[in-house]
Amino acid sequence: MKNNVTLALLNINDTNGICPQPLYWTSSAADNRVARLVVCIIATFTHSIFWLQLACCSSVRQGSMQWLYAYLITDLFLIIRYVSVYIVYTTTTDCYPNQSWVLFMYYFEVTFDNYLNILEVYILLALNICRYIQIAYNRNVYQLYGKYLFAAHVCIYTLPALSVLIQLYAGWCQLLVVPRNYCQVVYTNIYIQVFNVITAFALPIALNIIIIYCSVRHVRSASTMRAGVHHVSARQKYNRSLVIQFLVFYTIWLSLWSPNVIVFQVSITDGNVTRYVRMLNFIEIALDPIIIAALDVRFWQEWRRVILHLKANNLCNGTNPARVQPTTTAANIPSVKQPRLDATAL
Fold first, then answer.
1. Other CB atoms within 10 A of residue 167 CB
2. What are the counts of helices (DSSP H) followed by strands (DSSP E) for the chain?
3. Is 116 exposed, middle or buried (0-12, 13-18, 19+ CB in 10 A)?
4. Is 1 in a helix, a strand, or coil?
5. pTM above 0.90, yes or no
6. Measured between alpha carbons, how far is 33 from 311 in angstroms, rounded to an integer?
7. CA 187, CA 174: separation in Å to the nearest integer?
8. 3-class SS at 161?
9. Residue 119 CB: number of other CB atoms within 10 A?
10. CB contact at 8 A, 28 and 252
C-alpha cells in the first residue's frame, strides 16, 4: 500500500532529543475539538432515549423501520469513532508509539468517518425507494421482497468499504498528516476524485430528489383525482404524511450533512472550514433521533399512550390535592349532629 505516512514516521523517529508524540494533540488542537465532544455527549443522550424507547415499546419494533434503525446505528458508530479518537489523541503521550498502531489510528480517523457518511446517504436512498413503492404501488416491500432487502443491506455495507480499500491500496488517495494536529485524505488522481464526488454525493442525492419528486407527484395526482370526493381515504392520508415526513427530514439532514462530505471529497485542508462543517455534521447526528421520533406517527402514539397511562394512574397512584377525598366513619359509633353555623359566624 502506497502512502506517505510511513516515511513521515521514519523521519520523526530519526530526530535526536525531540519527543514527537505523533498520537498526542497539541493544546490548541484539543481545544478546537472540545465543542464537538460536547455535541457528541448530547448526541449520546438523545440516542440513548431513542433506543430506550425502542427497547420498551414493542409497537415501534417493526420491519418497516429497519432502514431508520440502520441509519441511527451509523450515527452511533460515528459518535463512538469520534470519542475513541478524542480519547486516544488526548491520552497517548508516548514519544514513539508502535508504528502499526499509529498508522491504524490515522487511517481509522479519516476513512471510517467517510465510510459511515457514505452509508448514511445510501441507507436513506433505500428507505426512500421502499416508501415510494409503498405509496405508488401499495405493496408491503418488507414482506414481499425480503431477499432483495437483504441483498441491498449487503451491497450498501460492503461496496463503499471495497472502494475505500482499493483506492488506498492502489495509491489513488493518500493521507496528509499534520503531526499532532489533524490528518486528511488527499487524492493523487483527479479521475478518482471526480468518481468519489459522484458516487458519494451527487448520484445518491440526485436519485433521492428524483424519488421524492415522484412521490410528491403521485400524491398530488391522487388528490386531484379525488378532488370531487369529500372523503379522503386513510391510505391517502398516510401516503401524504410519509412524503411530508421524509421531505422535512431530508431537507434538514442534507443541509447539515452535505458540507462535511463535500469538504472531504474535494480535500479542502483549511482547518477552520473543516472544523465548522464537521461541527454541523455532529449537530445533525444529535438531532437525528429527535427529528425521526417527532415526524413518525408511531412514536407519537407511544408517547400519547405513556402520557395517558401516567394520567390514569395519577403519577404512580398519587392523590390529587385539588380533589375532595371521601370520608368514612367508624361502624357502631353514633355521630353527633353539629348545629348549623351562619356564614358570618366566627
1. 20
2. 13, 2
3. middle
4. coil
5. no
6. 44
7. 6
8. helix
9. 20
10. no
Q: Which three cell numbers stand for residue 108?
A: 481509522
CA distance 90 to 25: 6
Please name the residue that has the C-alpha cell 502499526: 100
What's the CA gap between 314 and 319, in Å, rounded?
7
Angle, vertex CA 26, rays to CA 24 and CA 31, nearest 5: 115
Residue pair 45/200 in contact (Cβ under 8 Å)? The answer is no
- The per-residue pLDDT for range 242-271, each reduced to its tens digit, is 788 888 889 999 999 999 888 888 777 667
Q: Which amino acid is at 115?
A: Y
- For helices 146-170 and 99-137, give the axis angle rounded to 10 degrees: 150
Look up cell 459522484; give the residue. 198
Q: Per this entry, what is the length of the chain?
A: 346
Is 3.30.450.20 the CATH classification of the domain at 27-222+234-303? no
Q: What is the pLDDT of residues 195-249, one digit of tens each?
A: 999 999 999 999 999 999 999 888 888 777 665 555 556 777 777 887 888 888 8
Ordered DSSP codes for 14-78: T-SS----TTS--HHHHHHTHHHHHHHHHHHHHHHHHHHHHHH-GGG--GGGHHHHHHHHHHHHH
Question: What's the CA gap between 335 and 281, in Å, rounded?
Answer: 74
Between CA 281 and CA 50 the distance in angstroms is 19
The structural domains of the chain, with segments of one domain joined by +, span 27-222+234-303
The answer to whether the beta carbons of residues 142 and 66 sit under 8 Å apart is yes
